[in-house]
Specification:
The chain has 212 residues and is an all-alpha fold. It is 29% helix and 3% strand. The protein starts with 14 loop residues before the first helix and ends in a 13-residue tail after the last helix.
Length: 212
């Protein structure tokens, strides 16, 4: 039985015809549900692409969509802060959050070359930097022995919570976040280079289990 939606609804005269009509409608509904799901997935991907710009992705600024003009007429003022406008700058961190301090002293007087006597502090400048990352490598040495009673060879296992993966949970979570949420390094080779860039080591294999 084929369904022509341009015609009035069919009338089933027997139970067999009613069941055949139900089966046909079920196939149509299932096909439409799959089509709607595919379209929703495609719409979601397109919307995510529309929201991407140079600020939240690796796309260059030249690929950003052009913003519509505000329609305002030029005011004749120069760009930037106007005279009398109080400037804005990042607030300095308090002393308890400073890791190192470095005092910069002036050189000889640029006018006469004489020595400069320090009278006070004239400015402060703070630089925030990430510390160098050095991976922590732990080797689990699995020992073996023989039973004193029956001679059965017994081998130790890894401690609870330690898998056979060469990557620890924090490193694995970091790589997963960069590759999954931020779409960095989607291939295995690129992931290895990504790990090496901040840990100094290549992760070639997923497992590192060496039997002595």
């Amino acid at each position: 039985m084929s369904i022509d939606l341009s015609q009035p609804a069919p009338r089933a005269r027997t139970l067999e015809e009613a069941q055949a009509l139900i089966d046909e409608l079920w196939l149509v509904l299932r096909a439409q549900a799959q089509q709607i799901e595919d379209q929703n997935r495609r719409i979601q991907i397109l919307e995510e692409r529309l929201r991407m710009n140079s600020r939240n992705s690796s796309t260059p600024p030249s690929a950003d969509p052009q913003r519509p003009s505000s329609g305002k007429s030029p005011s004749g003022k120069k760009r930037g802060g106007q005279p009398g406008h109080s400037g804005k700058a990042r607030a300095l961190l308090p002393p308890d959050q400073i890791t190192h301090t470095h005092d910069c002293v002036p050189g000889p007087c640029p006018t006469c070359g004489g020595a400069v006597r320090i009278t006070g502090l004239c400015a402060r400048h703070q630089v925030i930097e990430l510390p160098p990352i050095r991976p922590v490598v732990t080797e689990y040495r699995l020992l073996a022995g023989a039973c004193c009673a029956c001679g059965q060879v017994c081998e130790a296992g890894l401690p609870p919570g330690v898998s056979r993966r060469v990557t620890g949970p924090r490193l694995l979570a970091t790589v997963g976040t960069l590759t999954g949420s931020y779409h960095f390094a989607n291939s295995t080779d690129r992931r290895n280079r990504l790990v090496k860039s901040f840990s100094g080591r290549f992760i070639v294999e997923c497992f590192s289990w060496t039997r002595i």
